[in-house]
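Subgroup meeting minutes
Present: P.N., E.W., G.H.
Scribe: E.W.

1. P.N. recapped why we're keeping a running log of single-chain structure predictions: easier to compare across weeks, and new members can see raw inputs and outputs side by side.
2. G.H. added today's entry (79 aa).
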Amino acid sequence: MLEEEKRLPESKIKADIEEIVQGKYPEEKQATIGENRGQLLIRIPQFVRHRMSLKKGQKILFKIEKQGSKQTLTVEVIK
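Output recorded in log:
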């Protein structure tokens, strides 16, 4: 059975829009890399989890791009 989509309350939508308009909406945030039994772990900030509706068990794709001495890691959520 498919999970029904839940609509955000109107007050939450207005609050999110207000954050964007005022420039308070964070576009990036630093995270610390941890380690457990040889695997590196990255904590996903709560605001990212809530805004993207991330759930345990979802798959993510890591992409590494190299341009000269600069390396960029892109994380894509596969829904």
